[in-house]
Amino acid sequence: MADFNKILDAGDVDGGIINVVVEIPAGSSHKIEWNRELAVFELDRIDPQIFAKPCNYGFIPQTLDEDGDELDVLLLTEQPLPTGIFLKAKVIGVMKFVDDGEVDDKIVVVPADDRDTGNAYNSLADLPKQLINQLEYHFSHYKDLKKPGSTVVESWDDVAEAKEVIKKSIQRWKDL
User: Fold this and answer.
1) Annotated binding site
2) pLDDT digit string (tens) for 132-148?
């Protein structure tokens, strides 16, 4: 398996097109994480089916969020994408998120070339409000059975803020 942090960088952050590696397909209750030290995907746990991921979930190579992991991505597609693929994705916003007291932001993206939607999604404002509500509900409650109240969606911010979060995460990676 390729070591994504060695063969890929974060992409063209200023241009809004980044590299994304898929960890968890939409609809899965498997918490699959990239193990940076071993350069493999690892099954961390199996969450209750009621908390299956409402979208594809992945990371941006050569980034480091404040929680110590690569910067997370919420990748919106009509169909699930398999673990282990990478794609070029268009940044459309950021979900500011805190998990057990640690900043754990999620960059919201769509495929850079999405002919199914005609590349209709360019910002969070282009998404159905119901989708934003579902994502917020999921991330506000997915740990409730283990540790209620430990996750908080603080806000949804625009593309410019998302790019700043990515740039800070790239710098943390370089400082590692």
Assistant:
1) 31, 45, 57, 67, 72, 104, 142
2) 999 999 999 999 989 99
Residues at the binding site for Mg(2+) are 67, 72, 104
Cβ neighbors of 53 (< 8 A, separation 6 or more) are 24, 25, 26, 27, 28, 29, 138
CA distance 73 to 6: 19
φ, ψ (nearest 5 deg) of residue 95: -100, 110
Q: Where are the beta strands (DSSP E) in 100-168?
A: 102-103, 106-111, 151-157
User: Could you tell me if 9 and 61 are in contact, meaning their C-beta atoms sit under 8 angstroms apart?
Assistant: yes
**Domains in the chain, ordered, with CATH?**
4-175 (3.90.80.10)
Averaged confidence pLDDT in the chain: 97
Known binding residues for substrate: 31, 45, 57, 142
Global model pTM greater than 0.85: yes
- Joined tokens for residue 123: 């910002």
Output the CA–CA distances (angstroms, integers) from residue 61 to 3, 47, 71, 89, in the order listed: 10, 25, 8, 12
By C-alpha distance, which of 31, 35, 33, 72 is closest to 48? 31
